[in-house]
Every structure is written in structure tokens, then in C-alpha cells.
Amino acid sequence: MEFKKSPDGGWGWVIVLVSFFTQFLCYGSPLAVGVLYIEWLDAFGEGKGKTAWVGSLASGVGLLASPVCSLCVSSFGARPVTIFSGFMVAGGLMLSSFAPNIYFLFFSYGIVVGLGCGLLYTATVTITCQYFDSHRGLALGLISTGSSVGLFIYAALQRLLIEFYGLDGCLLIVGALALNILACGSLMRPLQPSDCPLPEKTALESAPDRYSIYSEKEKDLEENTNILGKSYSAEETCKSTFGSGGRKQESLLHKSPTTMAHSKETETYKKKVAEQTYFCKQLAKRKWQLYKNYCGETVALFKNKVFLALFIAIFLFDIGGFPPSLLMEDVARSSNVKEEELIMPLISIIGIMTAVGKLLLGILADFKWINTLYLYVATLIIMGLALCAIPFAKSYVTLAILSGILGFLTGNWSIFPYVTTKTVGIEKLAHAYGILMFFAGLGNSLGPPILGWFYDWTQTYDIAFYFSGFCVLLGGFILLLAALPSWHTCSRLLPKPAPTTFLYKVTSNV
Do 375 and 429 contact (CB within 8 A), yes or no? Predict the structure, then answer.
């Protein structure tokens, strides 16, 4: 199926608008889950580590399932996937209002809502890329701010709804709001026609052209035809044995014109079945070859030192950098910050500053004199230092300032595709980005429970955030060392034959 040319405007801006609201509606509650986290702690009385699994699964499952999400969008299209995922997100949120224990939330909120968000993210990004070419960066930047704006608004909205309707009522209302994703999905008109069936006849007739690249085609077809011919003759022999007047009937069949036409149809049928058999064989070979190529490309990617460092950095960043958006409200409560001092929820500050960070860091990445890789490293190092400073913040003002810094630096997600492209090249971007997103989801899933377990063990968040800051700093320094130009210069100078010349001189002198 061939796509029409990207219009770079027109209905594409409607796609940007509905994709923005889709991410706003689906990611608003999972990213602002820190407000619900406090209520779940009080409602179920479980440990902080176990309760943190709910929010971490909601953010990590979508990234972990990114290959499955991409396959669904490529197979069914962005609009059907968006509508189906809208039901998933809304249904998961509403089911969570009836949760009898924390384990039910693992499924309803963590897995169902998380997987729905992953599908929606892939669908919105895919259809936006189809509609835009020259303005693709601007379009993707606009829709990515939907999740940050959703975090900002939903943090205050969920707190207000809990105040008036309780935790269960809040989840029911937020789930009802998520049903608006269905309206957004209905406006995601695909570029290509939606009903383009591929007739079976065309596929069978064009089969020899598709398989002409294989030298063994004729041999395989003859073998398949002979096998089918033998089985067919055996079947005819059985039939003629049980039929009346065996030899007489056989001679009549040979002489009859109807029989001749029937034999031609049989030969055509056998030929087509042989072609289909050959097609299945070659398809299996191609799939196996693609699998081998994929494994080979993956190994080649990990031989790239910068990519390996980037892989470690993104994994450590998500272990240490994601938990503040989930735990900052509980950090404020643990620091004895009074509720009347909370002018604005700390999660809302993180959300709005993340949107600002995405836009400003994206603009900085477009300047040619700025090295995007070093810019990304700088965000990691500063974020690690800010995380280590959280245990020293004992007032709302200092926590709000640190939340703003962390939110702004979390906006480095907007430059991560640039960094990946700079590291592996545009031709390997999809493969490399899929691997990195999988391990980013793994870090998202593990980070909050690990910090919660640190609190359960020490009854304070100090060691937890020291660990969190150390992870992000370690990832930043590993990436910095791998990206230093001196390392590449040294590796290029190694093959020079200077030592051989020196040894030759010493030998001659002796």
C-alpha cells in the first residue's frame, strides 16, 4: 500500500490538534499519578515500594511493549488503534475505582492503562509523521507537549476531584473524560484509502514475478508439483477401485471432453498450490533471514561505544529521573510541609516546566553550533545534582524550585531522537530507538519501587534520592567519556606503524 504525499498542512494541523488532546487525555492521569499515590497509601496501607509499582507500570508498560504497539499501528492503522486504545484507557481508569486491593490496581491501572497509553503514543506519532515532512519536527514538538500540559492540569484536577468526590469518584470522572479520545480518533483520517483489499487471484498470478529472485524456484516448483501429482493419482486410483466398471469408466474419462477440461483444471490447481507452497517456503526463509539480520544489526549497534553508553545512560536516567514525578507529593508530606503552604501541586510545576523544557531544548538542538550530545549530557549531570539536593529541601519554596529544575531537564526527551540519530545515523534510527525505548520503559518500571523500598527500609527519602541522583550522574559521566573526541582521536592513531619503525632502528643499531 502506497501512501499519498505528505501535505505538510491542511488536515495535518487537525491531526496535530487531536493528537495533542489524545496525549493530554491519556497521559494526564498516569503522569500525575503522584496525587493518587498518596491516597492509595492511605486506602490500602501497603508499603511505599509496593504501591509505587502502580504508577511505574502505567508509565513503563507502554514503552516495554513498543514493538507490539508499532506492529498494531502498522497492521490496523492509527484510527482503529486510537479508538480501541481509548476504550482501554477509559475502561482501566473506571475499573480502578472499584479496586479492592493494590494487586487489582497493578492490572487495571498499571497494565491496562499503561498499554493503552503506549498504543496511543505510537498511533499519534505515526499519523503525524505521515502528514508532515518538512514541518515534522514542529508538529511532533507540539503534540509532545500534550502530555506535559496534561500532567500540569490533571495534578490539580485530581486533587480537586478527590476533595469533592473521593478517590473512587475521581477515577470514574477521569475515566469518563478519557472517552473523548474516541472523538479524537475518529478525526484521524488516514492518507491512504481504508478499503484496499488485495484479491487472491492477483496474488497468485503475480507470484512468479515476486519469486523470480530465487534461483531454485523452478526446481522447488517441479518437486511440489510432482508430490501433488502423486497424491492426486493415488486418490484417483482409490476412487476408481471403489467405483463400478473400473477400467471402462477410466477409458471413458480419458475420451470425454469434460474429463479433459477437468484434468486441465487439476493441473492448474496443482500449479497454483505448488506456487503457494513455494511462497510459504520462501516467506519462512525471508523471515529467518530478517531475524538473523536484525540480530546482526543489534550486535553491531552495541559495538558502537557511544550507543552502548547511551543505552546505559537512558536506563539509569529512567531509574533515577522518573520517580520525582511520582513521589514529590509524598516527599513534601514527609518533610512536614503543611497543605496550606502548597500553593500549587509540585507535580503541576514539574509538568509545566517539562513542556517549557521540551520546547526550549528542542530549539537549542536546532542551532548548528550546539553539540546535541553534549547538551543531553549536561541535562543529565545537572539533573543528578538536583536530585541529590532534594534531601536538603525542607520547605515548599525549595521543593518547588527543585521540581521546576527537574521538570525542565526532563524535557530532554525532545532532543533524545536527535542524540540517537547523531549516534547511529538516520538509517538505523528506528532499530536503535526501539531498543532504547524498551530499556527506558524497564527503567521507568523499576525506578519508583526501588526508591519506595529505600524509604521502607530507612523511613526517609534521603538515601533514596542520593541513589537516584547517583544513577543519573553515573549515566551522564559514562556518556560524556564515550563521546569525548580524544577517545576517537586515540583510536584512529593506534594503527600507525611508528612502533615498528622504532624497533627496526634499535635492531639495526645493535
Answer: no
Report whether pLDDT(211) > 70.
no
Query: How many helices and strands, by DSSP H and E, does the chain display?
Result: 24, 0
Question: How far apart (Å, rounded) are the C-alpha atoms in residues 119 and 71?
Answer: 10
* Residues 181, 123 contacting (CB under 8 angstroms): no
Rounded-to-integer distance, Cα 4 and Cα 11, Å: 13
Q: Give the span between the Cα atoms of 248 and 172, in whole angstroms.
A: 80
- 324 phi/psi in degrees, rounded to 5: -55, -35
For residue 283, give the C-alpha cell.
Answer: 516467506
Residues 480-496: pLDDT tens digits?
998 877 544 434 443 44
Distance of alpha carbon 406 from alpha carbon 151, whole angstroms: 14
Question: What does the alpha-carbon distance between residue 434 and residue 431 come to, in Å, rounded to a whole number?
Answer: 5
Residue 289 is placed in which grid cell?
533471514
| More confident of the two residues 331 and 467 | 467
Q: Which residue has the cell 509523521?
A: 129
Cell of 266: 487439476
Nearest to 396 by CA among 466, 437, 343, 448: 343
Report how far apart, in Å, the C-alpha atoms of 78 and of each of 118, 195, 215 are: 13, 14, 39
Please give, one letter per residue, the 3-state secondary structure of 143-190. HHHHHHHHHHHHHHHHHHHHHHHHHHHHHHHHHHHHCHHHHHHHCCCC
CA distances from 306 to 246, 295, 415, 470, 501 (A): 78, 19, 16, 20, 33
At 250-290, the pLDDT tens digits run 444 444 556 566 666 676 766 666 667 766 766 677 766 66
Cα(373)–Cα(310) distance, rounded to whole angstroms?
10
What ranges in 304-415 are assigned the alpha helix state H? 305-321, 323-334, 346-365, 372-389, 396-410
User: Given phi > 0 = left and psi -120 to 50 = alpha, else beta, which region is 88?
Assistant: alpha
pLDDT in tens, 163-179: 999 999 999 999 999 99
Q: Is the pTM of this model over 0.85?
A: no
* Spatial distance between the Cα atoms of 366 and 388, rounded to a whole number of angstroms: 31
Distance, CA of 377 to CA of 379 (rounded, Å): 5
pLDDT in tens, 30-85: 888 888 988 898 888 888 888 888 988 888 888 888 778 877 887 888 899 999 99
* 311 contacts 302 by C-beta, under 8 angstroms: yes
pLDDT number for residue 435: 79
C-alpha triplet 52, 433, 138: angle, nearest 5°: 95
